[in-house]
Protein: CSON008287 protein
Amino acid sequence: MDYERRVSIANEEKKIFRMSESYDAPMIRKALIERGFIEQKAQPYNSIYLNINYALECNRIKNMQEYEQVILYRVCGKRNPDFVWVSRHEHYYLYPDSAFVNRISIPGLSFVNKADLVKYVDKIQEILDNADMDNVIKQNSDYSETSDSEYETDDDDYDESQEESSSEYETVSEDDDENENNKNQAEKNQTTCMLVKSIRDSVSNEAIKLPRSYDVIDNSIEMAFKKDFRLGCALGVVMFLNEQPNIEDWFIEYGEDDDASQIQGQRLKALDFIIHVIITNIRVREGQIDKSHVTDKNCELGEPEWIYISRTHHNTVREKKKFKTPLGMKDIYVSRIKYIAEDIPYYFPERWHDGCNNIYLLKPCDSGNGYGILLLDSERKIINVARSTKRKYIAQKYIERPLLVYGTKFDIRQYFLITMHNNKFRAWSHDACTIKFATDEFTLDTLEENIHITNVTVQRRFTRKPNDKLPKNNAWDMDQLLQYFESIGKPNIWKTSIYPAIKKTLSYIAELSFRNIEILNGRFEIFGCDWLITDDFKTVLIEINRSPSMEYYTPIHVKVLEEVLSDLIKVVIDYPKDESSLSSTGRFEMIYEKDFSWIGNGLLPYQFSNESNL
Structure:
């Protein structure tokens, strides 16, 4: 065989490639060789094949493929490869003159950084909110504001040992006339509430859904986390009570002749304040109260009140303790709880999937594959753990209402590709996904990782109990998930809702990331995106992973990864040659494109603007 001729042709066509030794190399190598590429593969210093004549004399050539690789490597010499596939981002800078390198440089804010991804989503949401806000203001301008005095309560004294008195129930113990006035006022505002619901639904459908996340080491962000966590406790109590089959049974009435101190149950002081806080937050969102005028006293939770509210949340949601109520007050509290609970999805749409338990994930920023993740439902524990180590953590709200498959939690690993060719920055989405299951059935009664953390490397440590409906290796492909959707009466939900939301989210992120990426033709990178589906089929982005694992854990991984990587070569090698047809991109779909011919190679787009890099 004429090795020199083969190398000469490959040189002329710029088809010399080099790969680092990694588990994701075989499929890439196969696809390149099929296209006439020749691998420039260096041999270990002690390889017998480095001395070809000696190897031949000793008849020690046992692997002709390796022998051929050595011959080709020696004929190629040490010329710069045209295509480079590396497993470490640091190697990006070793091949500045290569035409193709499977890494991009993100010196600005990076969406693969858990903290930076929050900033991306916040910025995108700000843009989306502003786009809708003009309509909100315009349509809401004709509606009058309601009084701020409703639901006020005396919150100066929260001594739990104090005997309950009628003054403690000022929030709900109104006379009949005032109750009637409140009812009339509610009827007058019905149209307003319907409008707000419509707007909230519209914004929610457009919004990017990422669990709320906080860098709890940052003092200013820590305060935002505390406010969020505490409001979550207040909302959690109301949602929990409203979801009970017989909410009336959660209130134990006692008469004037009864000794309240002898009755088992929680006092109502905290419940009064919970109602007040939620109502005040609703008015802020309606624009009836200027957010800057909201103080700790009339809305936010001060420390004494917070301790009381926290205890009430734990006792109600976790311990299932009931409330003791003066005779005649039960129906009033039940109606208030139901009334407020109906408004929560409208005014707090982002909270609906939070659930009632107020659980957060504490995720180390410098780790992947699920390592080091903790599930906590205590504000104090979250902050203490984050402060007790030099590792940087993100506190991320746990989605307590995930869609379950046969009672088991799952998430979706999907792939996202960025390419820079022919002066075009492009983002691509692939619809071949791996469905990753937890090992045991979902419950919020325990926070064990075998139930809640669906990363493959975590779940491999556990053994699934016999279950004919779920795989022993905790993995499905998309065909199996689509079959499940069909079995529950949702045959088109992936095509019409879930996957369009994935593509829209990634296109928004690509648009913002363009400003933070070093522009250089021939650079590309594939990312692993983890998505969660909620119980009402909303799509939530959990995180975007750099250098996603391409290991063949299961036959499902083999099938999915081989197709994704094969299609990647189609996008990177085949498509730039004929951009008039997308048929050469496999199942990768272009979701974003931007011309960068006005930017020099090796520069950042935001360097050309006085604006920030977002």
The first strand starts at residue 16 and ends at 19. The chain has a mean pLDDT of 79.
